[in-house]
Amino acid sequence: MPAASQARASRKSIDCRLYPSDNGCSLKISGTEAEVLDAAKAHAIAVHGHADTPQLRDELRMLLKTEVE
To answer: Which residue range(s) make up the domain with 55?
Structure first.
């Protein structure tokens, strides 16, 4: 598979609009799995008040969606 196709196939996202929140967050984060998990973890802690626990990253990983281009 060409590199461009691999990049498209591996692009992931998390969209806050798909999950209930007190502040009606509309942020969508997309990129590689590692980029999305890092950014989503920081966002979940800073904006949504989640605790920085090992379980948080595991929960976020389960919420990842593969983007189709």
So the answer is: 3-66
Q: Which of 26, 13, 5 is nearest to 60 (CA)?
A: 13
Pair 34, 14: CB distance under 8 Å: no
Regarding pTM above 0.70, the answer is yes
| Position 1 pLDDT exceeds 50 | no
What's the rounded Cα separation, in Å, for the pair 35 and 32?
A: 5
Which residue has tokens 């060409």? Answer: 2
Provide the number of structural domains found in the chain: 1
H-helix or E-strand containing 31?
strand 28-31
Q: Would you call 29 helix, strand, or coil by DSSP?
A: strand
